[in-house]
Backbone:
């Protein structure tokens, strides 16, 4: 299979059938519990992760840095050129897959491999005849190169997150596992080519590491000098990135009421206990003892950490539930992800903004619209989305750089009406050329005096992903850092 699109299309087809998902889940379990993966929990978790993310349609999570963070517990700012845990594990997983199919290939319902240069797995189903296989996809290269490494969280494989048949793209017919005679011939060929492949991999790895070192040294020579990063990364005080709280969103929907930042800070998640049934209390209250951020925050966090690394700085990543009011009464800097609905701490800075989230009428749930309290010419006073979370249409998001009230620290707010909006805000602030262009249009010089600013983004969403985004309004806010 030559293209990434073909691979993703076949994965989407599998994701459209609960029976196929269950069968694939069983197959992955069979592999990780088999002899080839015995004694390597790391490889087993890695394989389960890449399959789980692929079936869930989260291909953006199949990147080296994201895998290193989510699977191996690495810091968001870790140096991938120095820490090769993901690439090494991928190489080991591929060898173990070859061993597994060498023993059990003819009896397997699926065949999983890791194509070169990608962390998206190739999944082949046994269902078709040889004629259908030839029509479905072009022949594979005779000697594939070992792909990059992958890793996994124990709970990453979630069949319930898979796409529905209606939303999955049309897929080509899925090739089958080779027959016994073909498999035997293939493994003989692999044995002959193995020595050459090892030599080739060594050369490729050396070239890749050399390229990474050159890139790293080049980046380190040019620290980020663009607002807001120039201020955050040049500050003598640390910068904290605060992720959103996915459970508080679910709990507010369940109770039908918004939680104040004061109650949230005091861990009083259900002020009105009568809002929950006895069964709900047994389930939700213990569940809220944890601290789980939205998966969409992962890529934003990784991208920001990479920018910090360029400036030889680190960013402390913390969950919203770990923060106290006393943490804000310092001169530290903060980056908050999520709207007041998913990150109540956003409300602390609401009065500093021109663009403000307005809850839906009646229930008070969810930031349904964004209001402009000081609309300029050609600006609306209310911006109403046509798409809610996970839908297709238009939504909105805010990027705001403000001062921490009564403190010397600075605060960057990245918040969307939906998760897709927050992702778009994160993409804008980490796309330095585009951010520089938008700031210039707003009248903010990247090399001039400190200015606080706020941008309103229009986000085109398609099936839960931000396909396009643009700045529809920008305000320079009064007052700079003290």
Residues:
């Amino acid at each position: 299979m030559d293209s990434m699109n073909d691979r993703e299309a076949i994965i989407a087809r599998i994701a459209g059938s609960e029976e196929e998902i269950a069968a694939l889940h069983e197959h992955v379990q069979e592999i990780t519990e088999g002899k080839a993966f015995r004694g390597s929990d790391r490889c087993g978790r890695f394989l389960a992760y890449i399959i789980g993310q692929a079936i869930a349609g989260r291909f953006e999570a199949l990147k080296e840095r994201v895998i290193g963070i989510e699977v191996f517990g690495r810091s968001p700012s870790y140096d991938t050129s120095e820490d090769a845990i993901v690439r090494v594990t991928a190489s080991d997983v591929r060898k173990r897959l070859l061993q597994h199919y060498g023993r059990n290939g003819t009896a397997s319902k699926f065949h999983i491999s890791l194509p070169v240069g990608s962390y998206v797995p190739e999944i082949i189903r046994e269902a078709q005849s040889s004629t259908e296989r030839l029509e479905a996809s072009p022949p594979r290269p005779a000697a594939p190169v070992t792909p990059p490494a992958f890793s996994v969280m124990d709970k990453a494989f979630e069949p319930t997150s898979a796409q529905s048949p209606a939303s999955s793209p049309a897929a080509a017919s899925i090739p089958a596992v080779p027959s016994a005679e073909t498999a035997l011939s293939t493994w003989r060929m692999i044995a002959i080519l193995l020595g050459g492949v090892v030599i080739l991999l060594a050369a490729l790895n050396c070239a890749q590491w050399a390229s990474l070192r050159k890139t790293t040294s080049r980046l380190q020579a040019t620290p980020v000098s663009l607002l807001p990063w120039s201020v955050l990364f040049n500050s003598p005080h640390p910068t904290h990135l605060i992720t959103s709280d996915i459970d508080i969103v679910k709990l507010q929907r369940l109770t039908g009421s918004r939680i104040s930042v004061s109650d949230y800070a005091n861990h009083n998640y259900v002020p009105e206990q009568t809002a929950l049934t006895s069964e709900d209390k047994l389930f939700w209250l213990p569940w809220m003892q944890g601290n789980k951020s939205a998966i969409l925050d992962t890529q934003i966090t990784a991208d920001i950490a990479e920018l910090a690394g360029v400036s030889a700085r680190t960013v402390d990543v913390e969950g919203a539930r770990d923060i106290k009011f006393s943490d804000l009464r310092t001169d530290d800097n903060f980056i908050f992800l999520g709207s007041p609905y998913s990150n109540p701490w956003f409300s602390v800075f609401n009065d500093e903004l021109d663009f403000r989230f307005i809850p839906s009428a009646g229930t008070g749930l969810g930031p349904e619209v964004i209001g402009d309290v000081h609309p300029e010419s050609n600006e609306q006073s209310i911006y109403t989305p046509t798409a809610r979370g996970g839908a297709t249409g238009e939504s909105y998001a805010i990027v705001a750089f403000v001062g921490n009230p009564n403190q010397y620290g600075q605060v960057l707010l990245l918040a969307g009406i939906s998760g897709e909006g927050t992702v778009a805000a994160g993409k804008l602030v980490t796309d330095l050329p585009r951010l520089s262009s938008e700031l210039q249009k707003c009248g903010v010089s990247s090399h001039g005096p400190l200015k606080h600013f706020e941008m309103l983004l229009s986000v085109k969403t398609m099936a839960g992903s931000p396909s396009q985004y643009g700045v529809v309004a920008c305000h320079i806010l009064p007052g700079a850092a003290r």
User: Anything to note?
Assistant: The CA atoms of residues 142 and 189 lie 9 Å apart. Residues 128-222 have pLDDT under 50 and may be disordered. The radius of gyration is 25 Å. The chain has two domains: 4-216, 229-477.
